[in-house]
Amino acid sequence: MSSHNNGWRSAAVSTGTTIIAVRYDGGVVIGSDSRASMGGEYVSSRVINKVVQVHDKIFCCMSGSLADAQAVTNAAIHKLNFHSMQMGEPPLVQSAASIMREFCYKHRDELSAGFIVAGWDRKRGPQVFEVSLGGMVVEQEFTIGGSGSTYIYGYMDAKFKPGMTREQCLTFTTNAITLAMDRDNVSGGVVHLAVVTESGAERQLIPGNKLPVFSRVLLVNEYLGIQVRVVVRGNAFESFWRAQSTRRVVRRV
Amino acid sequence: MAMAMAMNRIQHLSASNILVPDWTSQEVSTGTTIMAVEFAGGVVIGADSRTTTGAYIANRVTDKLTPIHDRIFCCRSGSAADTQAIADVVTYQLGFHSIELDEPPLVQTAANLFKEMCYRYREELTAGIIVAGWDKRRGGQVYTVPVGGMLVRQPVSVGGSGSTYIYGYVDSNYKSGMNKEECLKFTAGALSLAMERDGSSGGVVRLASISEEGVERVVILGNQLPKFSSA
């Protein structure tokens, strides 16, 4: 990607991203951010939904090159549909993961996309599979992916407990994506969620201003030798302006 | 020039010869996880203990918490050689400055000395350093001097290759106004999580708490590290 001379104009569209899927007793919770970036400088879409429905009760999250991910996903939807019609019953989550893996592995040298496949089927209930870049498939209780995921490995390891309820999983997923979006410059926007259970699939969207806030501690006015530590609760934009305005007035918020 | 050619020859040898492992030609690096947290009355600093040359762990009980002065420490990450050299120089400069002043030096001074060195020689160095300590004027302070030579003071700072994995954990679990025990627990927990995920971090957790009373050092061995359940 020669993004040095022309910047983002000559960079490929990538879903530098944060995606996550968590399994709980009755279903799966899947989440992603909503940013598509070019060259790490330009956000080409701030509302893209990376949680794609590949069948009634099977979803997949895209990461990596957006073009590759969309191509593989569309091909997988077509193949899975056909397979399901042939079998005369809803497909297994493992079949969906297998189909995605086949594409990723066969064209591993040309493609650059990773996926999380999650859903519910009648044979084994809720399942989460990670289909990584080269075509490895691993079934896990929960999994994270994308560039933003590196920042939340510690958080996930500390916070995940087996046997969570649906509400706990939703909070857990939202918090994790928010933390990743706060640190990764190519993840951001809103949080797209999907919950898949035996009774069907349900989508949710959490806009930026409704995301959980982790307190921001800012250090202002150090050069005068006075430390003014302003703990501001609010989004990043709000806290920046509040910090600026407290430069004259020392105030503990 | 001769050294570079010799290195090339060794690299060429090791690349083609399976009897000579790759790590003989790799630079020694403290790919690492380091962390420092301020609390009222002092700072808590922590680091893992792994030094690697490529895939080989050159030292599994490294001490990356280096004293610069009585109440000022630095946490080293990046190239082991570079950081040791810089720390030695700054220790000398700070010691001299402190004698001239006839009083203990400020943490900000130590941090600025690190910054001067890391910025001036930024093309030749690979060093990410966290400077932390206690002084009478401003109490506990943490300054971070990452690769490139920026200097900024933060209440909590993480560094090294393993730090990327714990940004989310630190962001969500840090609260201002923690006391020393809470800071120690927070640091040990964060470092354990990073060591679990980062291949270049591991071994034991070394902690130190610096305050007006002095420096207290703790080592947490591998089997005593806090455990987190994960998939």
How would you describe this protein?
With about 250 residues, chain A is an alpha+beta fold. Chain A has 5 helices and 15 strands. In chain A, a hairpin with a 3-residue loop joins strand 8 (about 115-120) and strand 9. In chain A, helix 1 packs across helix 2 (about 95-105). The longest helix of chain A is centred in the first third of the chain and has 22 residues, at about 65-85. Chain A is globular, with a radius of gyration of 20 Å. Chain B has about 230 residues and is an alpha+beta fold. Chain B has helices at about 1-15, 80-100, 105-120, 165-175, 180-195; strands at about 30, 35-40, 40-45, 50-55, 55-60, 65-70, 70-80, 125-135, 140-145, 150-155, 155-160, 205-210, 215-220. In chain B, strands 1, 4, 5, 6, 7, 8, 9 and 10 form an 8-stranded antiparallel beta sheet that branches. Chain B has a 5-stranded antiparallel beta sheet with strand order 11-2-3-12-13, with helices on one face. In chain B, helix 2 (about 80-100) packs across helix 3. The longest helix of chain B has 22 residues, at about 80-100. Chain B is globular and about 60 Å long. Chain B: It holds the Pfam family Proteasome. Chain B: Keywords: Cytoplasm, Hydrolase, Immunity, Nucleus, Protease, Proteasome, Threonine protease, Zymogen. Chain B: It catalyses: Cleavage of peptide bonds with very broad specificity. Chain B: GO terms for molecular function: threonine-type endopeptidase activity.
